[in-house]
Q: What sequence folds into this?
């Protein structure tokens, strides 16, 4: 009888199934028992009946045959709740299954345990919502997991399941991976189809997983990637990411270490730790460090407001009456965007995106890889919406009916003023960028790769103040396989814990 869930990676669990050393049914029961007693709050919905049927008929010859797997709350699964982590849709049930999840079930052969918690509509990089409550970091209870792939990271790092799906529109795989010591791969835009109902703006969202090993991430891409006619942005099928592991000669690759950019400030100890791990990677592989300037505009505010365009049709007739049900930050963001986002704001956002694209293109003419921190610091208080306490004006607006009334009055005045001065919103956004950098720059180090569309991976890079931090490595478009090999080199030369300390001792190495 299996007492605890598998603490190695998912690929090695499949090996154990095939060798008759573990049973898919017993493994599922161990996962369900661990979830039941866990205080992480990593799952929002469980489906034991379906999971047991899948485990009983598991085909262990498939890539993830029989592996208990978490599905991110934002990814629809027919018959499961489709809340998008919001009270607005607390009673909605999905009428279809996302293509990537269907591939994971059919081609991958996973055992679907249930839904992992997410931030509301994927809009925040924190692990607290009104519908889910607080999801905790398995490295330290009371600290954030990040978001929006919140519960997926907590479940995998917390030893509940060995792999879980995720999505990344501005860092939502890499941010929680960095906070929980996991491997977080964001592929080139379009690598895994987003269909059905794939929005064509802002063209930043990619799908993937939270993984304990590079091999798991590569295998996940082999299962889920490839074109789908309902997503015009989806890319052609790659021969095999897993089979291609360790096939690249990394020696001589030019690496630019740029700890932070776009005005993001790192917390004490992060830069020193990052440089140490990046230089160790360079030394172990024969790469070459180069100096490359990277001057970028602050993209956060205009980018976030533009993203609200896809939320409004989702809320449809529920807005604005549903505002009290929404996370305060989401409601505030919608009100601000409705007021401040006009043709002038959109124009500036497009200019900034082009500037960022050209800056990245120029940087990659002089280097092959760019290394930065994944997050400005280690995990912060789980109940905070930013990495530091909110400034008094923001707390006043969010925390009281009077504050929200004052804000609506101010926004009404701004709408009237904007008719005469269309450039006013941009000026206000610039002021907000300077006054409240934590509030508008969440994901400031990760969103660049979403806007540019290039692949980026967060690799575990030790700890700061006893909590894990990530090393983000970016490569030019379509060099996903190269990034996996870069991550693999770190995995071999500087292995990371597969689960958070204190969860359980790893049962097996990540991969042979």
A:
């Amino acid at each position: 009888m299996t007492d605890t869930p598998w603490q190695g990676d998912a690929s090695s669990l499949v090996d154990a199934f095939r060798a008759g050393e573990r049973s898919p049914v017993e493994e599922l029961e161990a996962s369900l028992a661990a979830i039941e007693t866990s205080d992480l709050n990593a799952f929002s919905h469980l489906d034991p009946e379906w999971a047991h049927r899948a485990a009983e008929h598991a085909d262990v010859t498939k890539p993830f045959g029989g592996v208990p797997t978490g599905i991110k709350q934002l990814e629809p699964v027919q018959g499961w709740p489709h809340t998008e982590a919001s009270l607005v849709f607390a009673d909605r049930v999905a009428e279809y299954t996302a293509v990537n999840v269907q591939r994971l079930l059919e081609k991958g052969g996973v055992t679907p345990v249930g839904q992992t918690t997410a931030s509301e509509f994927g809009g925040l990089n924190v692990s607290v919502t009104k519908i889910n409550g607080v999801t905790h970091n398995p490295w330290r209870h009371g600290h954030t997991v990040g978001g929006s792939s919140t519960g997926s990271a907590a479940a995998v790092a917390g030893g509940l399941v060995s792999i879980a799906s995720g999505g990344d529109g501005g860092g939502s795989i890499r941010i929680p991976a960095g906070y929980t010591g996991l491997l977080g791969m964001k592929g080139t835009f379009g690598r895994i189809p987003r269909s059905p109902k794939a929005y064509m703006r802002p063209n930043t969202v990619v799908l993937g997983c939270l993984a304990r090993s590079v091999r798991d991430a590569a295998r996940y891409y082999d299962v889920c990637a490839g074109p789908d006619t309902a997503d015009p942005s989806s890319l052609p099928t790659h021969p095999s990411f897993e089979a291609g592991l360790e096939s690249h000669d990394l020696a001589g690759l030019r690496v630019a270490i740029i700890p932070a950019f776009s005005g993001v400030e790192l917390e004490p100890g992060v830069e020193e730790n990052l440089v140490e791990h990046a230089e160790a990677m360079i030394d172990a592989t024969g790469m070459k460090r180069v100096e490359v300037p990277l001057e970028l505009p602050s993209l956060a505010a205009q980018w976030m407001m533009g993203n609200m365009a896809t939320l409004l049709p989702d809320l449809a007739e529920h807005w604005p009456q549903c505002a009290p049900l929404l996370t305060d930050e989401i409601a505030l963001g919608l009100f601000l965007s409705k007021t401040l986002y006009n043709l002038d704001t959109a124009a500036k956002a497009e200019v900034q995106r082009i500037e960022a694209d050209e800056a990245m293109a120029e940087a990659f003419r002089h280097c092959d890889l760019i290394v930065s921190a994944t997050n400005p610091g280690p995990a912060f208080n789980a109940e905070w919406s930013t990495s530091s306490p909110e400034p008094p004006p923001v707390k006043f607006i969010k925390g009281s009916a009077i504050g929200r009334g004052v804000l609506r009055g101010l926004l009404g005045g701004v709408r009237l003023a904007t008719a005469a001065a269309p450039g006013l919103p941009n000026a206000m956004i610039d002021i907000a960028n300077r006054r409240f950098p934590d509030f508008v720059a969440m994901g400031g180090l990760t969103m660049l790769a979403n806007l540019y569309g290039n692949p980026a991976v967060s690799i575990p890079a030790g700890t700061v103040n006893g909590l894990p931090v990530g090393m983000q490595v970016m490569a030019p478009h379509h060099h996903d396989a190269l990034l996996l090999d870069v991550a693999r080199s770190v995995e071999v030369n500087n292995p990371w814990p597969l689960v958070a300390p204190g969860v359980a001792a790893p049962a097996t190495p990540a991969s042979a």
